[in-house]
Amino acid sequence: MTVARTRVALTIGSSDSGGGAGIQGDIKAMASVGCYAATVLVGVTAQNTTGVTGRFTVPVDFVVAQLDTVLADIGVDAVKVGMTWSAAHVEVVAQKLSTAGVPVVVDPVMVTAAGASLAGDDIVGEVRRRLFPVATVMTPNRAEAELLTGIPGAPPRELAERLVALGARAAVVTCGGADGGEWFADGAGAFAVPRPGHRTGAEHGAGCAHSALVTALLAHGLSTRDAVVRATELAADGVRDGLVTVGRGVHPVDLLALGHRSPPV
Ligand SMILES: Nc1ncnc2c1ncn2[C@@H]1O[C@H](COP(=O)(O)OP(=O)(O)OP(=O)(O)O)[C@@H](O)[C@H]1O
Ligand SMILES: Cc1ncc(COP(=O)(O)O)c(N)n1
What we know:
9 strands; kinase; thiamine biosynthesis; Ribokinase-like; kinase activity; alpha/beta
């Protein structure tokens, strides 16, 4: 009997103690589409659905140790880069990924769904210089795309096209909220990414889920365009099914149908 090869997605980012976003959200999103998730922690946040109260950064050497150790044994089919906090961390992660030979999804997390800042001041230039060239696709939200392009107030289509002009192979600018309005661009053109809008108040982790799903679908062999379109639909489903009894702020998305399962007893 032949055993099908398990696809492995690696997420490089930070822990969300609230469990809905960051590394914890990524693991659930990747698992929801049948991917094994390996994790490299760059930082730890003290966070819940109402905001971030503290953070701890993992020393750069230990980020490298985690990355080398995973790659030496497990290997990966695609990589996501999430919240990386400092320029020094961005530099070392980008350098390692430049030789990884697998798709790289960069979700340059700087602003949470609850509005908290998750980036050091020095990070924007470093993301532009180091991560754009290794990115198969960038997945910023609108605020992050404005920061990265330096064009505040520009429409999502222009932001996505500008990110590609700045060196990313492809970019999707997400817009959150019920109205949507996300745009994708790559070297071949641009299109609006369709999705339904939901007003459940369960968007915590939506951006993380979206980029983690893109990563997992690339690990399964989908094209970048197909992975983005499908991930957008699935992340929207996660908001629709969100866990509205969890937390008093922006509730977490749910990709595992936890809120719809019958109790085991
Ligand atoms: N109200 C909503 N209704 C339906 N889908 C949504 C909603 N909010 C978010 N989504 C889904 O989540 C995805 C990411 O949304 P959003 O722009 O809110 O991410 P973010 O958390 O701001 O991103 P980042 O991780 O880059 O900071 C969207 O592309 C969409 O698929
Ligand atoms: C550690 C960590 N990483 C990323 C996010 C972004 O969350 P969202 O997906 O809601 O934008 C977060 N809140 N915390």
